[in-house]
Amino acid sequence: MKVKVxxxxxxxxxxxxxxxxxxxxxxxxxxLHRVVTWQLENRRATARPTRERSxxxxxxxxxxxxxxxxxxxxxxxxxxxFIGGGKAHGARKRDFNQSLNKKVRxxxxxxxxxxxxxxxxxxxxxxxxxxxxxKALQGHFDKAGLSGKVLFIDGDAVNDGFAKxxxxxxxxxxxxxxxxxxxxxLKHDTLVLxxxxxxxxxxxxxx
Length: 207
Known about the structure:
Protein name: Large ribosomal subunit protein uL4
CATH class of the largest domain: Alpha Beta
Keywords: Ribonucleoprotein, Ribosomal protein, RNA-binding, rRNA-binding
GO biological process, one term: translation
Organism: Parerythrobacter jejuensis
CATH topology of the largest domain: Ribosomal Protein L4, Chain: A
CATH architecture of the largest domain: 3-Layer(aba) Sandwich
Shape: elongated
Family: Belongs to the universal ribosomal protein uL4 family.
Oligomer: single chain
């Protein structure tokens, strides 16, 4: 699949050949749903568990006589009724992590990239800016016709000047190729890849 390459300001910069094994896979809703669900479940944070009576560092020695004190019987300072004791019926740790085969994860990412390759994929030569200012970057986006939610994926690391300028624009996000994931790709209107990112993503599946 041959795609036109442009500069960040929209000027033409040649062509690039995309690997059909990565960017030409027919998307399937069930696979994408499984991968997105797996990804979001693994992002969920769990509540910090409270310490129950078996978790607190209190003595288990009987601290008073069984009879004769006029009070209740007690045999453990870790009981919930004592200060410093364990909490009764407190929050417990919940595990939301799901397992998903690596082949399914890889297939889902290929399908997400392929869906954008059909509609909403832009390839640029690089994200380097001569004038790393937000206003100048917005002007480049207007010339290139980039609007709405746009995800930029660079090679090993996102260019610092671009990242700082883009951080002030709503709906604009950037990440390196190794951080590319199905959920973030699908939730943006347009996916912008650098030539370096294309090579990294294709090598990611061939490696």
